[in-house]
Amino acid sequence: MEAEKIISTYFANVPAEIFERAAKIRLLITDIDGVMTDGGIIYDNDEQEYKKYQVKDGLIVHHLRRNKLMVGAITGRESPVVVNRCEELKFDFHYHGVKNKGKKFQEVLETLELEVGEVAYIGDDLIDLPILARVGLALCPSDALEYIKPYCHYVSRFAGGNGVFREVGDLILHAQGFLVPIIEKLTQKEDEQN
């Protein structure tokens, strides 16, 4: 089983406890700035805002949702370009301009009837701590502030905007037994797929 060997090698340094937590996840929530982007904001002379996203992050959303995992975003800034990206990726929900993320998180739990242990969250700054300190699987980019990292179960090998979301998505899919079958299906010869 080539795919199994490749994925096992890729995740060889991830502690078993992280996979145990990831196996229980039903919802992955992410911050945007500093997680799905590098945290930079570019404005042009007409005050248009630009952000750069990692396309690999976006691709895994389809596979998460296809395997009945929900994906959402809670971000502290209001930004049309972020709304557009969340819509393009078909997030189950996305909240913008949220100053009290802990309160919004509680609303999400109640609305979706989830337990904290069923939720993973990726954040990188102070505003994310009320969620990171509660969820079943708390994660952050490698370049998150140093005083945020102790509140996370796992620190990604990637910096914000450089594949953090993808690594987390892959990790959750692998922990739940979905990633290897996805790879195997995509690598079958066309006549074997029918």
How would you describe this protein?
This protein has a six-stranded parallel β-sheet with strand order 5-4-1-6-7-8, with helices on both faces. The chain has a two-stranded antiparallel sheet with strand order 2-3. Helix 3 (55-66) runs parallel beside helix 7 (164-175). The two termini are 20 Å apart. By secondary structure, the chain is of the alpha/beta class. The chain has helices spanning 2-10, 16-22, 55-66, 80-88, 101-112, 129-132, 164-175, 179-186, 190-193, and strands at residues 27-30, 42-43, 49-50, 70-74, 93-95, 119-122, 137-140, 154-155. Strand 2 and strand 3 form a beta hairpin. It has a single domain (2-11, 25-40, 48-143, 159-185), classed as HAD superfamily/HAD-like (Rossmann fold), CATH 3.40.50. 40% of the residues lie in helices and 13% in strands.
Please give a quick description of this structure.
This protein is of the alpha/beta class and 194 residues long.
Features:
194 residues, alpha/beta
CATH class assignment: Alpha Beta
The number of domains: 1
Question: Beta fraction of the residues?
Answer: 5-15%
DSSP helix count? 9
Q: Quickly give the structural class.
A: alpha/beta
For the largest sheet, list the strands in their spatial order.
Answer: 5-4-1-6-7-8
Radius of gyration: 17 Å
Low confidence ranges: none
Query: Main β-sheet, in a few words?
Result: 6 strands, parallel
At CATH level 2, the architecture is 3-Layer(aba) Sandwich
Can you give the helix content as a percent range?
A: 25-40%
The CA-CA distance between the termini, in Å, is 20 Å
How much is the average pLDDT? 94
